[in-house]
Amino acid sequence: MSSVSCCASRAAFSRLEDFKSLAQKRLPSDVWEYYSFPSCSGFTLQENQRAFQRYRLLPRVLRDVSSVDTAATVLGSQLDMPVAISPTAHHSLAHPDGEKATAKGAASAHTAFVVSSFANYSLEDIAQSAPQGVRWFYLIPQNDPARTKELLRRAESAGYTAIWLTVDQPRFGFQNRPESRMESAEGTRLPNLTFDNAPSDVRSSEFSAYLSDSLKQPITWDDVVWLRKNTQLKIVLKGILSAEDAKEAVKVGVDGICVSNHGGRQLDGVPASIDALPDVVRAVDGKAEVYVDGGVRSGTDVLKALALGARCVFVGRPVLWGLACDGAEGVRQVLQLLKEQLNLAMAQAGCSRVSDIKPSLIVHESYYLHGRHCPGSLS
């Protein structure tokens, strides 16, 4: 991996797509495909981005936006922007420093990083790489509750302040992905998981053979209740798309819900995350924080998600692109670009603070095409 910054010229990297193009050139084809592949036809993956284009912003004018503040409080942590890093696996495939570099980049941008159980460095090593950073842990429950408890204790001891649980993956496996895409990638360790009957140095290219025997599937509401009883950390459920599930999540006492379709990598044909967001926001009714990920590619996308009720927006693939370009610095610059774009979009929309971003700022395109919706609605 070249140490020359991919962002030497800011003019050359004014879009996340610029990071994507360079990352694709730098990464081996099998790694690029692993990071990029969708489920089945790829409909949901494509919809995640297309759906943002169907929302229109209604800016307010003649407001004092000489100073714009993008700061936000998420899960009790003060962030410089309402944009943070989604959990994704195997960062060492993008850069030798893997999640340690991602943590440094997030800390430099003063935002949060959700560390995956499929990280290639231990929870402790990642925490030590950026001691001042805001870290949350994406938990994969194991069949043995004692092992899951051990992971919880490790996360607590290492300074992680929230536990994320993905709930949209009742069965492990990837649709429409030839296994060879990962088999040829350079192996990396998975130090945060214990696999039954697996060697202690199991590699990422081999781990799928041990998933079914070692990791709990499916996860149910009983597991969420168990988790609530076994940790004092805040709990976020990632992967909820329906209002009914959102209401149930509130009943069992979660602190946050991330509206997500797993980046279009699980069940194909589900709604785009941004389209599912308004119903979840209404169902939660302020009883938990609501976030969204999937398809965010600009600061304007972030603004739209905030106007639809998200407290924070999470990005996954773009961070991996930055990591592949220039390690921690590439991650920082991806996040910095989103912050700068959000700052400008807020000013142009008449918002000087995140709290100024209201539902009246956004309308679905169908209002103009068919007259079905009213400005300021969440639909």
TrEMBL record:
Organism from which the protein derives: Branchiostoma lanceolatum (Common lancelet)
Transmembrane segments: none
Protein family per UniProt: Belongs to the FMN-dependent alpha-hydroxy acid dehydrogenase family.
Domain FMN hydroxy acid dehydrogenase: 8-367
A cellular component annotation (GO) from this entry: peroxisomal matrix
Keyword Transcription regulation: no
Single GO molecular function: (S)-2-hydroxy-acid oxidase activity
GO biological process: fatty acid alpha-oxidation
Active-site feature positions: H262 (proton acceptor)
Catalytic class of the enzyme: oxidoreductase
Domain of life: Eukaryota
Any Pfam family the entry gives: FMN_dh
Protein name in UniProt: (S)-2-hydroxy-acid oxidase
